[in-house]
Amino acid sequence: MVAYLDSSVVLRYILLGDTALHHAMAFPRLVSSELLEIECRRTINRCRLQNELGDDTLVQALDRLDQLLQMVDLIELDGPIKQRAMASFPVVVKTLDALHLATAQALAAEEAPAGLQVFSYDKAMNLCARALGFGTPLATG
Questions:
Q1: CATH number for domain 2-131, candidates 3.30.390.10, 3.40.50.1010, 3.40.630.30, 3.40.640.10
Q2: This model's pTM is above 0.85
Q3: 39, 72 in Cβ contact below 8 A?
Q4: 119 partner at 20 to 30 Å CA-CA among 15, 59, 68, 131?
């Protein structure tokens, strides 16, 4: 089984102490797109610039992110993934979500799709992931 991490889960863990990430960490493999690091670092920096994080909390957030990234296999956005993200999906999703889902599909081509669980708090992404045959442990409704 593989846990695919969306930045919404990682950021809630880093910034709010949300524990849903612990469920994903129980999986033998954690995977995400290289977008994960970009999205998380930009959000942390934006929070700092908007005075939502002080010096201490900024350093703590970056340390938590670095520790987590050591456990996650980041998949490069190669040509086929970008091409897939440009195509249609069964549910309307935003661009970054399409890139994450295209990455998950590329990974599922290597692994069994049923063995891939997408961890996200984004409703549209969860709905699309389910339509693509992935498990969505954090989906509500």
A1: 3.40.50.1010
A2: yes
A3: no
A4: 59
Nearest-CA neighbor of 61 among 107, 23, 12, 120? 12
Q: What pLDDT score was predicted for residue 1?
A: 86
Q: What is the rounded CA–CA span in Å between residue 86 and residue 95?
A: 8
Q: What is the mean pLDDT of residues 83-101?
A: 96
Closest among 135, 91, 98 to 113, alpha carbons compared: 135
CA distances in angstroms from 27 to 47, 92, 103, listed in the order given: 30, 28, 18
List of residues 6+ apart from 74 with CB closer than 8 A: 31, 32, 33, 34, 36, 37
